[in-house]
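Chain and conformation:
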Amino acid sequence: MTQTQRILVTGATGTVGRQVVTELLDRGHEVRALTRDAAKASFPAGVEVVEGDLTEPDGLAPAMEGVTGLHLITFGGAAFSPLETGPRILELARSAGIRRVTVLHGGGPTPLEDAVRADDGVDWTVLMPVEFMANALDWADGIVAAGEVREPFVDRLSAMVHEGDIGAVAAVALTQEGHDGQEYVITGPEVLTLGDKVSTIAAAVGREIALIELTEEEAVATWRAAGLPEDVVGFLLKAYGDTPEVGRTVSGVVEKVTGRPARTFAQWAAEHADAFRGQP
């Protein structure tokens, strides 16, 4: 049995942060969740909620007291801008006696991740998940309203990962030895096409769902109409049109780190079937 530890989770209201919180609780650890507005945050019973902002690190010292591990994100503030405060955050962490740090990769080089990698005063692990299974929730409205998914590049491949498995890898790295200096590419257990994903959701909800392929021009128009900024549109074109090998290759990291197989998209679809039925 791993000794009970207290872990500070930043970005705790996010897609991954919530899973880190859940996995730590399930493993018997104490969790302190950092949020900018505690009144708006909702967490499972037993989670200690503290207010703080990664863009103002000097106010984080009380949140770090009595903590052995720290989960970090690379963006902060209301605008989710890249954090420049990594060195100060890590200085405070070392002063508080924090031994282990995980950082969720932000999709490319960031000042905070650079600071973590350069710090030899803590045991750090970089978490590099590929496409989240949760991204499929973007299709819910179209499936509910018209029974269809409209996407470009329908033959693209993805080793998409259950967000709970990202949380599980983080929880192990934060509470167990042997993960210092590791860069973990976290994937699911299978490589899927868009057709695979749509048919899996259809099976979970018990209805037919059509997959309609958009041209690149139609996709760009759709994304712009949805208000996506141009840099995001460009990123999606590159990621979907020419998915890098790392995003379509099963890594095996989840099983290696946690000792259990990565969760499948079928499991994820069953867990979220109500969203695709238009139910709360």
In short: The first strand starts at residue 6 and ends at 9. The chain has a mean pLDDT of 96.
